């Protein structure tokens, strides 16, 4: 039910955006027919609303888990890693110091979800939050059978939260043939 609500909210926001102006079949057919392309820029309002939706998901999931004592004690975390949702990797990891791991995992999940949204909204911590989120969701995806949920959150982090001008610069560098290593090295140097 919650996933359906998220899909409805995101699709409604996208309906009012101009996200298809640049990379869409409409724009492709306009170019092939010699018509002018649609504008490639738009208001940041819809982007910020999509970001706000993701931040709300993190924060309120953290609030819900914080108010549930079994998450704080690690009981839910241990139950999940030893239950029917666990992958072989999850079962293997749960065999190491299960009580300590469950407690750290439960508290870590709650703290991550409560802080992730705020870290994503602060420009100075945004890229670190994206990296932490990718690690968090990759870990969940590797240890639990949850379909493509982790991949969806990783895509949301990578597509919605970087600054559009940084993405444009990255796209230009990739299109010019610059190596990914030199791009990342330059980016890390610029951020320090």
- The pLDDT mean sits at 84
In DSSP terms, counting alpha (H) and pi (I) runs of 4 or more, how many helices? 11
Class of secondary structure makeup: mainly alpha
**Which H/E pattern describes the elements?**
HHHHHHHHHHH
Please report which band the strand proportion falls in: under 5%, 5-15%, 15-25%, 25-35%, 35-45% or over 45%.
under 5%
- Low-pLDDT segments: none
Q: How much helicity do the residues have?
A: over 70%
Largest sheet: none
Please state the CA-atom Rg, rounded to the nearest Å: 20 Å
Please specify the SSE layout and strand pairing.
Blueprint: H1 2-15, H2 25-32, H3 45-66, H4 69-73, H5 75-81, H6 88-94, H7 98-121, H8 126-143, H9 149-160, H10 164-175, H11 180-191
Helix pairs in contact: 1-3, 3-7, 5-7, 7-8, 8-9
Please give a structural write-up.
The protein has about 190 residues and is mainly α. The protein contains eleven helices and no strands. Helix 5 (about 75-80) crosses helix 7 (about 100-120). The longest helix is centred in the middle third of the chain and has 24 residues, at about 100-120. It starts with a helix and ends with a helix.
């Amino acid at each position: 039910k919650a996933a359906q609500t998220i899909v409805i909210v995101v699709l409604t926001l996208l309906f009012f955006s101009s996200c298809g102006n640049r990379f869409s079949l409409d724009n492709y057919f306009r170019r092939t027919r010699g018509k002018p392309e649609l504008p490639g820029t738009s208001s940041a309002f819809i982007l910020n609303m999509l970001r706000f939706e993701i931040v709300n998901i993190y924060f309120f999931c953290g609030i819900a888990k914080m108010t549930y004592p079994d998450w704080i004690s690690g009981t839910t975390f241990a139950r999940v890693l030893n239950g029917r949702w666990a992958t072989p990797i999850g079962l293997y990891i749960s065999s190491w110091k299960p009580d300590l791991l469950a407690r750290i995992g439960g508290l870590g999940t709650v703290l991550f979800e409560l802080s992730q949204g705020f870290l994503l909204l602060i420009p100075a911590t945004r890229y670190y939050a994206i990296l932490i989120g990718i690690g968090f969701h990759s870990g969940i995806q590797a240890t639990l059978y949850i379909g493509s949920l982790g991949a969806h959150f990783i895509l949301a982090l990578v597509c919605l939260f970087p600054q559009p001008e940084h993405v444009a610069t990255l796209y230009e560098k990739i299109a010019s043939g610059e190596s990914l290593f030199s791009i990342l090295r330059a980016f890390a140097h610029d951020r320090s």
